[in-house]
Amino acid sequence: TPKLSFHHTMLVSQNYYRRQWSLSGNHRLKNICVIMEWVPDKEHLKTNEPPTLPTTRQKDAEVKAARQAEEVKIKQLIEMYDNDGNGTLEFGEARPLFKDLGVTLTVDEVENALEDLDHDGDGTIGTDELRDAIVNRNYYQIKHGRYFVVLTLREAEGVRAAMHHGAFGGGTMVALRYGLAGSTTGGSRILETTSQFEPASHFHSELCDSTFRFCDSELEFEDESMSMLLWQLQSDPLANRSQFFNDIRACRRRSMKEWEGTSLRLLFTEETSLDVMETKAIISRIKTQIYMHYGLYILDVWRLIDKNGDNQLSHHELWNGLKALKVKIKKSAFDDLMAHIDTDCDGDISYNEFRAVFQDDELESTICNN
C-alpha cells in the first residue's frame, strides 16, 4: 500500500493498526470511533509554519516545473473570476472564489482573509497572493503542535481515566472526540476535555474529520472536506490515492460500493484543487448568467435547454444551452463540466443532477426580492 502525504498532525495509534499484522494473518480494520486531540505543550503552538524546502537539484527542478504549471492555472482562474478584466481580483470578485473552494467563512472572516492575502495592500489579489489562498491555504490557521490521534476503545478508556485523575499537567491539553463514523455533516464531537482546554480552529477540526473519514473508507464528502483532502494529497499521484483507498477498504467488513458515482471521485480524478476550481469557476459564471443577468429560476432554465422534453440533457443540448446563456467555454472545460454534473456516469444529465449543481437559494432570493 503506498504512503500518502497526510498532514503531519494526523496520527494513528500503533494499537489501532500494526504493520506486523499484514504478515501474521487476516485482520479486519474497525471503524474509527475515538480520536484524541492532543497538545503536548500549548506554549509551543505555532500557526502555519512555512513548508520545508527541497534539498536536491532534482527536487528543485520538479518543484520549479510544478510551480510554473500552477501559475498558468492560477492566471487562467483569475481570468474566470475577473469581471472587469484588469488582471487581478478585487475583494468583491474574490469572495465567490472562497465559496467555490468550499470554505465556510463569515463575511467578516472572508474580508480578514483577503486582507491577509493582500500582501502589497493594493486592495486586489494577484497571482502570487491567489496561490497562497489555493495552494498554501494560509487562512486555515492550522496550529502546529496540536495533534489528532486515532485510538482504540481500550486506549480511550485509559486516557479518560488519566484525565479524571489529573495526570495531564503543565501546558498539556487533551480532548476525546467521538461520532466520526458514518457522519457526512457535523463531524466529530468533543466528549471530554482536560481543564483549560482550548479547541482547535474550525479548519483544523475539519481537516481531522475529513482525513479520518477517508481512512474510514467513507464515500460522501461535503465541498469543504473534499477541498481539504485535495489540498493534503496534491503531491500524491492519482493511482496512489486510489490504491491506498482500495487496499484499506479491502480490510473492512462492508459492501464495496463503487466510488465513481460519489463525491469522493474528485480525489481520484483531479490532481489538485486548481483542477477542480476551473470547473467551479465556470459553474459560478453560469449561475451569474442564470440568476443575475437573465433573472431565471432553475426550472425555467431546464425547460429552455431540454429541447426535446425527455427530461434528460445530452452533451449537445447542454452545449447549446450554454451558448444561449452566452457562456463561453472551451471544449476540454465543457467535458470536465459534463463529467462533474453527470454523477451517475450514464452520459446524460437528469434534472436532479442539473439542479444539484446550479440551484443557488441565495441568488434565487435576489430574483424574488426584485
From TrEMBL:
Pfam family name, one: EF-hand_7
Residue stretches making up the EF-hand domain: 69-104, 105-140, 293-328, 329-364
Keyword Metal-binding: yes
Keywords: Calcium, Metal-binding, Repeat
Organism domain of life: Eukaryota
GO terms of molecular function: calcium ion binding
Name of protein: EF-hand domain-containing protein
